Amino acid sequence: MLDTLAATVRRATAALPDSVTHWTARGVSERSEQLGVRQGVAETPKRVRDEGVMLTVVDGGVGHAATADTSGAGLRTALLRAHALARAGAGKTVSRPRSCRARATAANTPAASSDRTTP
Predict the structure, then answer these.
(1) Fewer CB atoms inside 10 A, N or C side of the chain?
(2) Is 91 exposed, middle or buried (0-12, 13-18, 19+ CB in 10 A)?
């Protein structure tokens, strides 16, 4: 699954604009089985399979989106949602993402100063 997912995510990132400085995808595939007893009688086993992808996009800010739809269209939609959140948060965060810090210049970065000292 993960090899196919990696290739599908790479193709889906073509929908992102060139201003995106970084993106990540984390695939998750979990299987579980639940066994239970109610009033002394064994219940039918419950089998659960959960798969999805967590996406992060950096473009001035950081945006996250998750989807269980691992098709190309589903990943593209989630990437664009993460990108929209990244753009909405651009310039409104306490700290800048690392990839954005590299672009900072003395002209647009306030000088760091403090009167405080530590023992």
Answers:
(1) C
(2) exposed
Read off the pTM: 0.67
112 domain-assigned: no
Alpha-carbon distance of 45 to 37, in angstroms, equals: 10
Residues contacting 109, CB < 8 A, separation 6+: none
Supply the angle between the helices 72-89 and 2-12 in degrees, to the nearest 10.
60
Structure confidence at residue 2 (pLDDT) = 66
We report the CATH number of the domain holding residue 20 as 3.30.2290.10
Does any domain span residue 56? yes
What is the rounded radius of gyration, in angstroms, for the C-alpha atoms of the chain? 21
Q: Across residues 69-74, what is the average pLDDT? A: 94
pLDDT digits (tens, 9 = 90+) for 10-36: 899 999 999 999 999 999 889 999 999
Inter-residue contact 46 to 8 (CB < 8 Å): no
